[in-house]
Amino acid sequence: MGSQRISVRNVADLARAGFEIARQPVTKVDFEVHHAAARPGYLRELVSAGTDSAVFLETLCSATNGAGVVIGTRTRKPLDGTEVVERVDGQQPAERPQKNVGSWVFQQTTSPNPTFIYESAQTFEGLIAVDPGAREVFEWHGLAVRDLVKEISDAASSLIDAPLLSLQCPAQLPTVVKTRNHDLRTRKEVAPPCASLAVRFAIALRDVSAAARFELADRFRELCEKHGYSLWLADTRPGHRQGNWFEVSHADGQFSPLYRGELRSRQRIGTILPLTFVGPARIGSTHAIASFLQRYTQVGVVGCAGTTLSDVAFVHLQLSVHGVAADRLNRILGKLLGESSTPARPHKLLRELFKRLGLPPDPDGPSSAAPDPTSDYQTFAGPAFPYRPFQMPDCMAVWVSWEVARQHRGLAAPLDCLYRALAQIAPEVPVADTTASAADLATVEYLICRATEQSVVRGKAKLAVPKAVLQQFSSGGIEQPAAKLCSSLEEAWKAHVDQSELDGVGELTVAWRESWLGHWTYS
User: What residues form DSSP beta bridges with 61?
Assistant: First the structure.
């Protein structure tokens, strides 16, 4: 019975691939990867530059620990542009970055995988808190997140043979609900910190049976109880939209008992290295990368953002390398990328980089003789940045979503209107000994933007906005200052969109909690 179900699924995947190719015969996907120092306004400046290279069809943006990534895709038909010429043996050399002030930019091309089901009617979405009270990232956090990413990806690929749709760290925890003596009349919702040391993930369910959900839930519950983590699952009951969570297990957020081995692991990290892995979307690619990193005991993962754009997998990781300063790492990495013999394949490039850094693999670490699903992936590395703690206690999360008709300006039009609205509703926010507008202070922590078959572009983003903005909206009354801020921003955003004569605007929403956004939003 199981083999028959797999056979039917394979036929369905083949039919979908044929439909996609017939509908739009795209053989290549052009993309850009920006590794930059995290600062307010970087994404806005990038997409508003007015050049064709910055007009993205689909976009992923993430920022944490003082570094950020912006990934954008563009598709083309077979004879458009210039094809990337690989070596005769199929071994593509590593890409040399275009070095700008505060950023490295990579421009490349890859092949999509139209059989990859990255949107599913049924998903399994979870949220695991490693250390929700952490104000700084320590070395043990990197090891814990690295191992957790490996376990999550292993459950998807090995346990139920399903695609890992998205991966995000840090992430915002669920809204805190308080009552007095369990009296629902005293119910009060408190916004959680803008982001916490937690991993959020979504897995596509090919098998939508209750047994498959229970199998995954039990796997993660046992994992969290073993490590002392908290676990939430997406609330799929009627009336509960994305952003509603059901608590499965609760932990106090103390030091995980499995990472007490060395005192060194309690030190704060000093350097982070951004890495982005790109290739045809397929099951098991994230698991292969995480398993490889587990062989190096001095390498942790302190941030991640993974998804598929235009049927291409993008797995972005922030590595922490214990005892290696940013300037030394950049010197070695720059020399490595400057050599024509350096391979682009993830395992080969990382193995050579770690070797030059003096990091031997653990001989007793995990190893696999199975085929490597990332053997045709490209790796974009660097530059290394000094670690900068995130100022989450001083910021609140503002969630925004939009739906517009596809047009030549891409993401620039709705984003520019949003920033102008921020400047309008909060032109003077106190910062240290001066003032600045909310548009100059807000940071895009997470953004996902997709194009649909109906020529519609849909997006969702989480902004980190200084809490000092709330002073202008605390005039009393029943409505909370955060709700007043969001309603004012939404009204101003819509007004600026109307003035810009942007066509095909279907929905613009702003909220301080994710579940109050538009009904179609993506993770």
Answer: 70, 447
Q: How far apart are CA 266 and CA 276, in angstroms?
A: 27
Tens digit of each residue's pLDDT (9 = 90 or more) over 428-460: 888 777 888 888 989 999 999 888 766 788 899
DSSP annotation of 460 reads E
CA–CA distance from 520 to each of 53, 114, 245, 507, 509 (Å)?
Answer: 28, 22, 17, 10, 11
Alpha-carbon torsion angle 53, 56, 57, 61, nearest 10: 150
Q: CA angle 22-28-29, nearest 5°?
A: 110
Query: Which residues on neighbouring strands pair with residue 345, listed in sequence order?
Result: none
Is the pTM value of this prediction over 0.85?
yes
* 241 vs 507: CA distance, rounded Å: 17
- Structure-block tokens of residue 434: 């001066």
Comparing 27-31, 184-188, 189-193, 302-306, the range with the smallest average pLDDT is 184-188
The closest of 314, 306, 332 to 108, measured between CA atoms, is 314
Q: Give per-residue pLDDT as tens, 120-144.
A: 457 889 999 998 888 899 999 999 9
Name the band, by pLDDT with cuts 50, 70 and 90, for residue 271. Answer: very high
End-to-end CA distance of the chain: 33
Task: Transcribe 34-48 into DSSP letters.
Answer: EEEE--TTHHHHHHT
Q: What is the rounded CA–CA span in Å between residue 105 and residue 96? A: 9
Section 410-424 average pLDDT = 88
Nearest to 34 by CA among 110, 112, 97: 97
What is the Cα–Cα distance from 467 to 32, expressed in whole angstroms?
33
123-131 and 197-204 beta bridge pairing:
antiparallel
Buried b (16+ CB within 10 A) or exposed e, 329-349: bbebbeebbeeeebbbbbbeb
Cα separation, 400 vs 398, whole angstroms: 7
Residue 477 is classified by DSSP as S
Token look-up 């292993």 returns 154
Q: Six-digit token pair at 480?
A: 């909370």
Q: Which of residues 235 and 99 earns the better pLDDT score? A: 99
For residues 126 and 149, the answer to whether their CB atoms sit within 8 Å is no
Q: How far apart are CA 70 and CA 309, in angstroms?
A: 12
Domain 392-516 in CATH 3.30.70.260: yes
- Secondary structure tally for the chain: helices H, strands E: 10, 23
DSSP letter, residue 511: E
Asked if 398 and 488 count as a contact pair (C-beta separation under 8 A), the reply is no
Domain boundaries of the chain, sorted by first residue: 120-389, 392-516
Question: pLDDT grade, residue 78 (50/70/90)?
Answer: very low
**Owner of token pair 């890495």:** 275
Q: Show the tokens assigned to 448.
A: 């996902």
Ramachandran region, residue 243 (left: φ > 0; alpha: ψ -120 to 50; beta: rest): left
DSSP 12-65: HHHHHHHHHHHHS---EEEEEEEEEE--TTHHHHHHTS--GGG--SEEEEEEET
